[in-house]
Amino acid sequence: MFLGIDIGTSSVKAALIGPDRELLAQGSAPLTVSRPRPGFSEQDPEAWWQAVQAAVGQLPAQLRSQVRALGLSGQMHGATLLDAAGKVLRPAMLWNDGRSAAECRELERREPRARAITGNIVMPGFTAPKLLWVRHHEPELFERTATVLLPKDYVRWRLTGAKISDLSDASGTAWLDVGRRDWSDAMLAATGLSRSQMPLLVEGSAPGGMLTPEAMRLLGLPRVIVAGGGGDNAAGAVGAGVVRPGQAFLSLGTSGVLFVVTDRFRPNPDRAAHAFCHCLPGRWHQMAVLLSAASALDWVLSVTGGGDAVALVEQARRPDLGGAPLFLPYLSGERTPHNDPDARGVFFGLNPGTSRADLVQAVLEGVALAFADGLEVLLEGGGSIDEIDVTGGGARFAWWGELLAAALNRPLVYRRGGEVSAAAGAAVLARMALTGEPAQELCLPAPVLRVVEPDPSLARQLARRRDLFARVYRDLKPSFLELAR
Fold first, then answer.
1. In order of start, what are the domains of the chain with their CATH numbers?
2. Which is deepest, 178, 185, 263, 429, by most CB within 10 Å?
């Protein structure tokens, strides 16, 4: 059997899969995010390591003893700074940390070819501008930085003692030449760094270290290889069997992702689409990314009193959207298509009769409309999408699925095990790293639980309301900037 570990933002998940890719056991441990100032988002890397031990420790000891290989996936973009002795220098700056907007502009001035090299706009969530921010605001720490690791690769270092990353995760740093699948010396130089401070690069399905005796003791595992692994979305795609060009999935996690596999490097940076390496050799993918998806739903339920989320979403069901308030789901800024770290969440159209159910409905719809914006961008970039698999914790809300199918005007496919697809994908990559089996034999879609077809009436309503949704953002964009000053 094979073990996958996913280093998420809100939790660490561990999944054991058997020879037929069946899920045998799973565990999880929570994580918290620190927001010391507006726009800041940080975690203590030690918390990842402690959560890994807790999540793996929930798996039956007898099964752990039979693990043959281990794979990793994780939240992308996080900047983990180590000194020459391997000491963590500061809390890790996460993917939704927005403090480095000025440094993004500076990097693109320093290296005018940045978008051509990386295939992406340099965004505040990416790793490179965070390091430039540290260089400007914490220069002593910058000078002491010997290595920069992404979150899952910090965990790998604790597991193996090896400083290694995979190409899918490295794609989100703004230091990778994504078309060539190698570090870009020009982008590193623009940040004041060099290859010597970067981890070794491997493909996600290749070996990427071996468990140390200490890690074996702490986790109750035999001495096994650790696969290169993948960024959370690329690993999730492997777990969902989304590995062939044109296959797509939509992730309703803390953030939201619309992901499509491409046959080659297909960048569309000017519309804030991501063009990254897949975690399998010779494959790439495009992504439209929303910084707030299920987290927006969690937020509105929390501030309105909490309760049973599934029941509250069903109570919000409103097939007739006429006169309903709108919500801009930009609680932490937004990536696709706006690349606007200053954007914020907005309810528009409240009245004395607006209820809690109306607010919940507005949040569900706002995220669905933001995904529709993202789909448009991916299609512009040469993507081809028919049906879309759905993964992530938000997949359990039936009404949200109906709204999403109508907003995207595409069938949504729900499959068994979608809620742990990143960890399961990491486990599949572990198997490939050990056995060398080809992706087309292992990366198969899970059994279908249900398919949600677009409702024509709902699709027409959402198409009309999307125009207003876009106009509200355009009208408020100057005010977001003023608010941020």
1. 2-241 (3.30.420.40)
2. 429
Closest CA relative to residue 5, chosen from 26, 24, 20: 26
Which pair of tokens denotes residue 448? 């279908």
Distance CA 451, CA 112 (A): 45
Distance (Å, rounded) from C-alpha 148 to C-alpha 154? Answer: 9
Is the Cβ–Cβ distance between 160 and 210 less than 8 Å?
yes
Contact partners, residue 371, CB within 8 Å, separation at least 6: 250, 256, 258, 288, 290, 404, 407, 408
Distance of alpha carbon 75 from alpha carbon 77, whole angstroms: 7
| 144 CB-near residues (< 8 Å, 6+ apart) | 83, 84, 89
Predicted TM-score of the model (pTM)? 0.86
Residue type, position 48, single letter: W
- Measured in whole angstroms, the distance separating CA 225 from the mean position of its chain's CA atoms is 25
The residue from 6, 169, 177, 232 that is catalytic is 232
Is 185 in the active site? no
What residues contact residue 321 under an 8 Å CB cut-off, 6+ apart?
A: 365, 458, 461, 462, 465
What's the rounded Cα separation, in Å, for the pair 408 and 346?
22
Tens-place pLDDT, residues 20-43? 888 999 999 999 999 999 889 999
Looking at the chain, how many residues does it have? 485
Amino acid at 373: D
Q: What is the pLDDT of residues 55-113, one digit of tens each?
A: 999 999 999 999 999 999 999 999 999 999 999 999 999 998 989 999 999 999 999 99
